[in-house]
Amino acid sequence: MADQYVQTPVGTEPPTLPVLRWEEPPEGPVLVLLDQRRLPVEESTLVCTDVPALVDAIQTLAVRGAPLLGIAGAYGVALAALRGYDVEEAAELLAEARPTAVNLAYGVRRAAEAHRAAVKNGAGPEGAASATLAAARELHRQDAEASRRMAAHGLALLDELLPGGSHRILTHCNTGALVSGGEGTAFAVALEAHRAGSLRRLWVDETRPLLQGARLTAYEAARNGMAYTLLTDNAAGSLFAAGEVDAVLIGADRIAADGSVANKVGSYPLAVLAKYHHVPFIVVAPRTTIDPDTPDGASIEVEQRAAYEVTELTAPHAVGVGPEAGTWLPVAPLGTQAYNPAFDVTPPELVTAIVTELGVVSPVTGDEVAKLCARSRQVTIG
């Protein structure tokens, strides 16, 4: 079940976003999520007591963002183990919830492997479940640390490419604390620049059709007191032409072995614009987003989402907002077909650099990506 909500009026924000947390009330363990569908109007928590509820939360984008999906998936396996459900079945359901996001499958696999190892070593159900939860908590901790390191590496790269500071950064979709165990990926770099006094302007793509930029990135930028401006996706070209963009920073949902990057649809056009206007195009993602088993961009499975997300507009899910909260308003004739890929793929030749917690990959080639992957096998984040 996932029907319990706690509402916090916007404007009384805590110091950090309560994006995801594990709780153990008397009635049994639960995974508590900040329901991102209700932002920016209100902060409401969604309580998941079983794996089907978590799968629904993932598919309806109550929880989203590649690194955070990995963490949620790992906790989901732990939830199944601790509540006595079939762990292997739960892992399969979770891993398939969103096929493009490689971190989800990674987090699920890591927790499931911890459970199998504990069982193999003679642990009973309780011991195996505890080992699974420990694996999820460790992944959560490591992602927070990776976020901190990516922010530092990313700002150093920006300062190297754009000496003198006063960076004007364009970003797409949402890549902040709402997608991470820490402060995010690409957004974390912009936030680091803001704290260093070198962020002149954060340009926030609206990110249609589900408006993650408008609803979520602008929300996070406002919370952090950053100088930001929202624009529709199709206004980005004129912004480049006017010379108002110094760098593009995006996240990633999967990076192939050759350096191809799958990210929220609309990222590829930005890469083309950046290349034409000689602007650095930088991808910020943890090492776990790189999938050596996916050889190239053509091999990345791109999730296709429902047509109604394009042919209709939603009133915010928050109570009392819009004509009828949570309803969809038609913007196209009934029966209109829609092309609605969740992601697009940017080829490596359009990517200036990939920033990970282990360092920067540039130039972006299969050989350089392989070197980073080899290095990651020798490094443990502490």
Task: Explain this structure.
With 382 residues, the chain is an alpha/beta fold. The chain has eleven helices and 17 strands. A seven-stranded mixed β-sheet has the order 7-6-5-8-11-16-17, sandwiched between helices. A four-stranded antiparallel β-sheet has the order 1-4-3-2. A hairpin with a 7-residue loop joins strand 3 and strand 4. Helix 2 packs antiparallel against helix 3. It is globular, with a radius of gyration of 20 Å. The two termini are 36 Å apart.
Shape: globular
Question: How confident overall, as mean pLDDT?
Answer: 91
Low-pLDDT stretches: 1-14, 318-325
Helix content: 25-40%
Output the strand order for the largest sheet.
Answer: 7-6-5-8-11-16-17
Would you tell me the structural class of the helices and strands?
Answer: alpha/beta
Distance between the termini: 36 Å
Number of helical regions: 11
The percent range for strand residues is: 15-25%
How are the secondary structure elements laid out?
Elements: E1 5-9, E2 20-23, E3 30-34, E4 42-48, H1 51-59, H2 66-82, H3 87-95, H4 102-120, H5 125-161, E5 167-171, H6 186-196, E6 199-205, H7 212-223, E7 228-231, H8 236-241, E8 247-250, E9 254-256, E10 261-264, H9 267-276, E11 281-284, E12 290-291, H10 308-311, E13 312-314, E14 328-330, E15 343-346, E16 353-356, E17 359-361, H11 366-376
Parallel strand pairs: 5-6, 5-8, 6-7, 8-11, 9-12, 11-16
Antiparallel strand pairs: 1-4, 2-3, 3-4, 9-10, 10-15, 13-14, 16-17
